[in-house]
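Weekend entry, working from home. Most of the wet-lab plans are on hold until the incubator is repaired, so I used the time to fold the two sequences that have been sitting in the queue since the last round of cloning. Logging both here for the record. First:
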Amino acid sequence: MTSSKTYEVLPAAQFGRTVKAYLKTLSKREDAAAREIFETLTVALSENPRQMRGQSLAWLEKIEPEPWPGPTLAGDKRGRYSLKGWEFWKAYLHFPYAKGAARKGRVMYAIDEASRAVHLLMMYTHAEYQSRPDDGFLEGVMRESGIPPRQ
């Protein structure tokens, strides 16, 4: 049960799949470090998903709101997932044990303010995607995660 001061963190199936695939690429020592980062991230997101700080978060570069996938608000088009009470965010992680593009990790999540829930959608590194995954893929992840598209 969620108190009024915290958020419930709900890992989506895609988040579980992407973290599992990522962990398979690591040594035992790196695996332990990565698991600690993900556990600490989950706790920090439950406390305040819009502002995370602290010594235990040295691997966190920044967090920022992210544009919803689909058409933008330009012109007459409106984003399919631009929902009242929902926000889409990205956490920028630095994996100190990794090399090259794999050092830059990203976790995408959605905040449902009405239910005070954080939906962890997916994790990736720059070794997998140079920039964010394409909108069609993200829309599928959101659909699978139960984030309702605007009608």
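Second, folded right after the first finished:
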Amino acid sequence: MMEFYIYRDGVGRASGFDTGDMRFVFGGEEVSSQKEPRFRMMIYLSIVSLIDGLLALPERKRFDFVAADSSFSMKFILKKDVCAICSEGKSLGVFDYDSIIISISNGICDFLRKGNSLPLEDSVYTDFNGTVEDLKAHVRFRKG
């Protein structure tokens, strides 16, 4: 099972260009952008990129995620409904595609519940919220 966590730097009103971190937990393994300052990322733009890439994975079969304005990266390789995940040249395991999507969705919902929603007038609002809605629709469709 995979868990996904998102952290935004600072407090107060969110901005689409805020920086932050992502943390992926795979049983005993963990990959986190918190390890090094060069991995810090523009969190909202990185979430959009992650969702877009993962939703396109069934067609493309491979997604090389590179966080916005960061050196943080991960590889996702899909074969049938099973996805291999790698980071920094290390295999993190093989996971069911649907469980990855659900974990990402749960992590984003938790992040937003903690007061990290973008204001309507933010320049990233439309892209971010549209992509999050695409993810939610995909999860609903896959759950049947």
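Plan for Monday: verify the second prediction. The chain has a mean pLDDT of 94.
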